Amino acid sequence: MARRKIVAGNWKMNKTPSEAVALVEELKPLVASEDVDVVFCVPAIDIIPVVEACKGTNIQVGAENMYFEESGAYTGEISPAMLTDAGIKYVVLGHSERREYFAETNETVNKKMLKAFEHGITPIMCCGETLEQREQGVTMDFIRQQVKVGFMGVTADQAKASVIAYEPIWAIGTGKTATTEQAEEVCAGIRACIAEIYDEATAEAIRIQYGGSVNAGNAAELFAQADIDGGLVGGASLKADFGKIVNYK
Ligand code: 13P
Question: Which of 19, 60, 116, 242 lies 20 to 30 Å from 153, alpha-carbon distance?
């Protein structure tokens, strides 16, 4: 069975609550699609108004991060139950910006993965190499480690329902997209890694996105690759172009 494409916007640290609602209103008609899952991953403070604004549409709302404890003395953090109660279906975990600026590790990402599944939230787990790693020829070794540790203790059924986003760090926000061949090669490598950890059926079911300077001009070619099941989109998710990416065909 063909995997359903999933196109998610990662708004990062952009849009106040009122700006967020205005953006949803602008994008709503543009992202209507019966063929593709559409997700807006938004800053925590925007979640409640964005969930409200997306009611009755095809848009699902995701968070950009989540803590791995249930509740308690963790000042500034957001719990999984807070997210589900607010209507969240997806959560981005282990984005390279969180790994780089907020000291997230494969181990903390793994704890968050397990917690997300416990609460019925679908993780979009990010992985991706630096330019230096690519030049040293260790891209796949590095990503396999991220995937293997990230999925420790995750069951095959949970893995089948999850999303992995391959985002080469050198392609994020740089306008320098990976070539279609580079993106497909790594996404296929990630699928092979999932087959090794679990089995072919799990590898066939899991959805793998490409992220990194996806735009209205390159989405169609990227998403047409055998192992690329959609995209995680930063900058272009904040404008009307996102509608073109969702309706890439
Ligand atoms: P850009 O699309 O702005 O390159 O960002 C990609 C990204 O980091 C999505 O999570």
Answer: 60
At residue 160, the pLDDT reads: 98
CA distance 169 to 150: 18
Instruction: Point out the annotated binding site.
Output: 10-12, 173, 213, 234-235
Distances (CA, A) of 87 to 23, 27, 188, 240: 19, 19, 32, 24
pLDDT in tens, 192-228: 999 999 999 999 999 999 999 999 999 999 999 999 9
Give 27's contacts (C-beta < 8 A, 6+ positions apart).
40, 59, 240, 242, 243
Roughly how many angstroms between the first and final C-alpha of the chain, as a whole number? 19
Contact call for residues 30 and 240 (beta carbons, < 8 A): yes
Residues 6+ apart with CB under 8 A from 43: 11, 12, 13, 14, 15, 20, 64
**CATH T-level fold of 5-246:** TIM Barrel (3.20.20)
Task: Tell me how far CA of residue 187 lies from CA of 126, 214, 229, 231, in angstroms.
Answer: 12, 15, 9, 12
The ranges assigned to domains in the chain are: 5-246
User: Cα of 174 to ligand 1 centre, how many Å?
Assistant: 9
Instruction: Determine phi and psi for 37, rounding to 5 degrees.
Output: -80, 130
